[in-house]
Q: What sequence folds into this?
């Protein structure tokens, strides 16, 4: 796959950044004691796990020679699911559905 290492690098940096963003949202929910009132903390924790998993697989893609394409594809799909869960969290926050 041509240029696959470049895509794995982008997945690694973006998923680690989004993991940090989810961590800030998660700790803010805990600090303001909004975790008992909403399901946003569960969705945020799920997104954190997805982005961390994407980081791990994209790192494996950069370090592996035999299974580089497979690890990159897994990282790509997990990253996409993480983006979708972050979208749901945003919808909950914007429309205040979680109350």
A:
């Amino acid at each position: 796959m041509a240029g696959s290492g470049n895509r794995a690098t982008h997945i690694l940096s973006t998923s680690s950044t989004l993991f940090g963003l989810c961590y800030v949202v998660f700790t803010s929910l805990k600090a303001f004691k909004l975790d008992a009132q909403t399901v946003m903390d569960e969705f945020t924790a799920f997104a954190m796990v997805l982005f961390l998993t994407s980081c791990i697989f994209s790192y494996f893609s950069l370090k592996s020679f035999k299974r580089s394409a497979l690890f990159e594809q897994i990282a790509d799909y997990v990253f996409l699911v993480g983006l979708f869960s972050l979208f749901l969290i945003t919808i909950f926050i914007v429309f205040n559905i979680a109350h």
User: Anything to note?
Assistant: The first helix runs from residue 4 to 31. Residues 4-95 form one domain. Helices lie at 4-31, 40-63, 68-95. The two ends are 46 Å apart (CA to CA).
